[in-house]
Amino acid sequence: MNIEKKMRYNFSKRVWELTKKIPKGKVSTYKEIAKAIGTKAYRAIGNALKKNPYPIRIPCHRVVCSDGSLGGYKGKTNNKEKKRLLEKEGIKIEKNKINLKKYLYRF
DNA sequence: TATTTGACCAAGA
DNA sequence: ATCTTGGCCAAAT
């Protein structure tokens, strides 16, 4: 099996593993995760998370869009539950945007 | 096998 | 500050 294929093999799994590493009170973006994996599949990241709405083990509410907007949660865009969870962890959201300069976690 | 679908991104007619 | 457009790529159809 060549290297590229191997990289692709556990794509979704890698996404979940990285997502689990995001600490409480911080966020990451779909793009950052893609970069950490070494791919440009920003959209596929979103798809992978969507497919596994497992909020307990995988804090996908800590993954947002690179422009600071929230993205989706549990299958829906602009899910209020996501906003609520983030605020609960101490992240301030103004006009449905997050200040990434402040809260972005770098891998 | 081929086409479509997204919880995306960056640039801007 | 919004909205549109073209590009991206794994997964689902």
Q: What can you see in these coordinates?
A:
The protein is built from six helices and six strands. By secondary structure, the protein is mainly α. Strands 1-2 form a two-stranded parallel sheet. Strand 3 and strand 4 (76-77) form a beta hairpin. It is globular and about 40 Å long. The N and C termini lie far apart (28 Å). Residues 1-5 have low confidence and may be disordered. The chain binds a DNA duplex (13 and 13 nucleotides) through helix 3, helix 4, strand 2, strand 3 and strand 4.
SSE string: HHEHHEEEHEEH
Percent of residues in beta strands: 5-15%
Mean pLDDT: 89
Shape: globular
Query: What ranges have pLDDT less than 50 throughout 5 or more consecutive residues?
Result: 1-5
Q: Which percent range fits the helix content?
A: 40-55%
Oligomer: single chain
Q: How many β-strand stretches?
A: 6
Helix/strand-derived class?
A: mainly alpha
Q: How many distinct helices?
A: 6
Task: Record the SSE blueprint.
Layout: H1 3-9, H2 11-21, E1 28-29, H3 30-37, H4 42-51, E2 63-64, E3 72-73, E4 76-77, H5 80-88, E5 93-94, E6 97-98, H6 100-103
Parallel strand pairs: 1-2
Antiparallel strand pairs: 3-4, 5-6
Helix pairs in contact: 2-3, 3-4
The chain binds a DNA duplex (13 and 13 nucleotides) through helix 3, helix 4, strand 2, strand 3 and strand 4.
